[in-house]
């Protein structure tokens, strides 16, 4: 065999050895990708994924130093890897600064002394948003793969891990939203069960109501209770706040009110005790306005207490009276500073309109409020209607008044005709 042939054979052997070495590198990279993919599919926590990531870069690629950052639940930057990373860098607030980088960048170009010992910044951008990054130090001396190829591989596994974590956060957020929606629907259904669905329409009283929370769960409440053969109690209230806290307070308010009604307190004492119950529950952090009345169909007397609520409108013998006598709102003071009750004798056919401020303060495009004057005009013009038609027509008029603006509060209406 000639010298030239020996040289060619040595050349091919070297090429074969380099190719085999490169194939070994690629096989290890494929194995690493499979390991990470299995870990992701097994829903391993991000901390476990970070350990696998760190091991691959150290043991298989000879990367001396690595720091992997992600966006945490509060959308802050958090370091998941710690080996060979300076303690100060573990708490490094990189979110705002590193959001500027959308491609692999040499650390030398960033000019930050905190990043000493690292060579490259590898960002992860998902849906046009920076969601994480890796800082990697110098590589080992393995010649079977170029630095560019190593960076591409590191970029690939960095993307897999960080995007997997982002997708997990998204799925969890979606699940949390679905759970919250179901809980809100359940709470709304339970709240609707608290207000009476069957109101009387007999020889003594005709009643009609409308209740629409601003969202699924509101802070308004109305009730109607027959407390003896000839006495009827009714109320309407507005609880500060919205959502589940208001719904819970509403449920407690109803329970206490109905229990206290069975004890047959004088009305002023009843309201005073009810105020104490509200204070026990709310600790002075939430308040309730309410209008509570008891009607005696034998004596035809209506006794009431208005606790800081919108004045109910009484139309009797074509005369309007606003029922304002009472006290301050409930829950503000442990002991009410003053309390009084109003009493009126009513004639057959008298109409009482009880409402919350979501109706009187409904606003149109011009910034005008519906206000009590429009409500009084409506009562004067439509009081001969059946109360179901009365309620429907009034709500339609409020909707027409608001034009195309959305309601920004709960709306509750309770109307009674005392026959």
Tally of domains:
2
Q: Beta-strand percentage?
A: 15-25%
Rg, Å, rounded: 36 Å
CATH H-level homologous superfamily name of the largest domain: PPM-type phosphatase domain
The percent range for helix content is: 40-55%
Largest sheet: 6 strands, mixed
Q: Please state the overall shape, judged from the principal axes of the Cα atoms.
A: elongated
Q: Can you write the helix and strand succession as a string?
A: HHEEHHEEEHEEEHHEEEEEEEHHHE
CATH architecture grouping of the largest domain: 4-Layer Sandwich
Oligomer: single chain
Q: How far apart are the termini?
A: 126 Å
* Number of H- or I-type helical stretches: 10
Give the CATH topology of the largest domain: Phosphatase 2c, domain 1
Provide a brief overview of the structure.
By secondary structure, the chain is α+β, with helices and mostly antiparallel strands.
Task: Walk me through this protein's architecture.
By secondary structure, the protein is of the alpha+beta class. The protein folds into two domains: about 5-170, 2-Layer Sandwich (Beta-Lactamase); about 195-419, Phosphatase 2c, domain 1 (4-Layer Sandwich), CATH 3.60.40.10. It has helices at about 5-40, 45-60, 85-90, 95-100, 145-195, 245-260, 265-280, 355-360, 370-380, 385-400; strands at about 65-70, 75-80, 105, 120-125, 130-135, 205-210, 220-225, 230-240, 290-295, 300-305, 310-315, 320-325, 325, 340-345, 350-355, 410-419. The strands form three sheets. Strands 7, 8, 9, 10, 13 and 14 form a six-stranded mixed sheet that branches. Strands 2-1-5-4-3 form a five-stranded antiparallel sheet, covered by helices on one side. Strands 6-16-15-11-12 form a five-stranded antiparallel sheet. Strand 9 and strand 10 form a beta hairpin. The model has no long low-confidence stretch (mean pLDDT about 80).
């Amino acid at each position: 065999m000639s010298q030239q042939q020996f040289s060619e054979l040595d050349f091919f052997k070297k090429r074969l050895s380099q190719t085999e070495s490169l194939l070994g590198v690629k096989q290890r990279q494929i194995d690493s990708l499979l390991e990470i993919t299995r870990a992701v599919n097994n829903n391993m926590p991000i901390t476990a994924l970070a350990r696998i990531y760190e091991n691959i870069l150290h043991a298989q690629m000879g990367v001396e130093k690595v720091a992997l950052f992600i966006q945490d639940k509060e959308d802050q930057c958090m370091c998941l890897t710690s080996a060979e990373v300076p303690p100060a860098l573990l708490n490094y607030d990189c979110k705002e600064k590193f959001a500027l980088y959308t491609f692999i960048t040499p650390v030398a170009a960033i000019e930050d002394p905190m990043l000493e010992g690292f060579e490259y910044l590898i960002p992860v951008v998902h849906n046009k948003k920076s969601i994480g990054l890796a800082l990697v130090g110098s590589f080992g001396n393995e010649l079977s793969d170029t630095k560019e190829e190593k960076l591409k591989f590191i970029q690939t596994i960095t993307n897999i891990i960080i995007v997997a974590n982002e997708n997990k956060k998204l799925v969890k957020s979606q699940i949390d939203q679905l759970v919250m929606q179901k809980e809100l629907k359940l709470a709304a259904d339970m709240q609707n069960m608290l207000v009476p669905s069957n109101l009387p329409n007999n020889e003594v009283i005709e009643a009609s109501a409308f209740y629409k929370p601003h969202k699924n769960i509101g802070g308004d409440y109305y009730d109607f209770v027959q407390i003896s053969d000839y006495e009827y109690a009714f109320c309407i209230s507005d609880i500060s706040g919205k959502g589940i806290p208001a719904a819970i307070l509403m449920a407690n308010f109803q329970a206490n009110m109905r229990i206290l009604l069975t004890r047959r307190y004088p009305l002023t004492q009843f309201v005073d005790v009810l105020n104490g119950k509200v204070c026990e529950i709310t600790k002075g952090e939430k308040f309730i306005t309410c209008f509570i009345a008891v009607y005696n169909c034998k004596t035809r007397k209506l006794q009431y207490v208005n606790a800081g609520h919108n004045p109910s409108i009484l139309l009797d013998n074509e005369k309007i009276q606003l029922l304002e006598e009472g006290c301050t709102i409930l829950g503000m003071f442990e002991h009410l500073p003053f309390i009084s009750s109003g009493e009126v004798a009513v004639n057959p056919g008298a109409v009482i309109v009880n409402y919350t401020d979501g109706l009187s303060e409904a606003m149109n495009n011009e910034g005008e409020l519906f206000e009590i004057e429009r409500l009084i005009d409506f009562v004067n013009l439509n009081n001969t209607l059946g109360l179901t038609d009365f309620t429907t027509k009034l709500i339609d008029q409020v909707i027409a008044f608001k034009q195309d603006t959305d309601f920004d509060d709960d709306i509750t209406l309770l109307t009674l005709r005392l026959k």
